[in-house]
């Protein structure tokens, strides 16, 4: 990417809810050449009133762009990809931001842009929705997963890594789409199930108002994501159904062990189980990390691709990337253990 600077790239954002709107605002605030498109006229009017760049025609948004980001609802991403594909230039990169990747990756292989489509998933968000909730700083230090197909050339993968790290301040990590879905089932989707379970149990209890009257940090934190619009939650669970179902037995088993220890008044076993969970939670922010630069030549190589595709499964992130005529260097942070 040494011969094209991130600042010279032209972007289009298709769909401007929380994630798409945050992308659009971040790029606009950074002075990038960016245009947004949304099917909702009210959203477009809201954007125009705040000098957020929009166009009324989808084709006008896409033609002549270097990077197109699809931020439609998860269930609508395949149709969005079909809609933009005829208007993409020969060197235009297209990516999405949906929270399940295997299905959209498979659909991408059926289009005429399989060699330019990189499924993506920024691990960021809030329970709010819509352009009014957009936050240009939403992606700062967030992990942004990329799931490129083997058909995608490294030069386009490098381009998107530069965009994610340089313009959005995020940390890029790459893995196969199927690996992403198995991993995110436990890191994101099943937590939505557990939050809904707790909130739903209280809703069905004999005294929900009494419970809410005493709800403090544990209940608020444990149910926060149930504030997400239901359609968004249903979309992620339905489109990652197989991985969610594969991940739930481990959750059920651990809960059964906890309940068994409570029923049996086995304080020792209960303490060991809670401590096991406590140690894992501590690793979320307290893991020792190591950092090193991986340097590759300008020519595309299997070695560089293998390194990139291993970054996600090792639990690491690319936190900086520098390209020059001699090649590309990735600053990679990974668990030290």
Give the tags.
2 domains; 6-phosphogluconate dehydrogenase C-terminal fold; three-stranded mixed sheet; Rossmann fold; 11 strands; 337 residues; alpha/beta
Structural class: alpha/beta
In sequence order, what are the helices and strands, one letter per element? EHEHHEHEHEEEHEHHHHHHEHEE
Name of the CATH superfamily of the largest domain: NAD(P)-binding Rossmann-like Domain
Q: Which percent range describes the beta-strand content?
A: 15-25%
> What is the name of the CATH class of the largest domain?
Alpha Beta
Q: What is the general shape?
A: globular
Output mean pLDDT: 93
Rg, nearest Å? 22 Å
The domain tally reads 2
Supply the CATH architecture of the largest domain. 3-Layer(aba) Sandwich
Task: List how many beta strands DSSP finds.
Answer: 11
Give start-end ranges of low-pLDDT stretches.
none
- Order the strands across the largest sheet as they lie in space: 2-1-3-4-5
Task: Specify the helix fraction band.
Answer: 40-55%
What composes the largest sheet? 5 strands, parallel
What is the straight-line distance between the termini?
33 Å
Counted by DSSP, the helix tally is 13
Protein name: Prephenate dehydrogenase
GO molecular function, one term: prephenate dehydrogenase (NAD+) activity
Family: Belongs to the prephenate/arogenate dehydrogenase family.
Keywords: Oxidoreductase
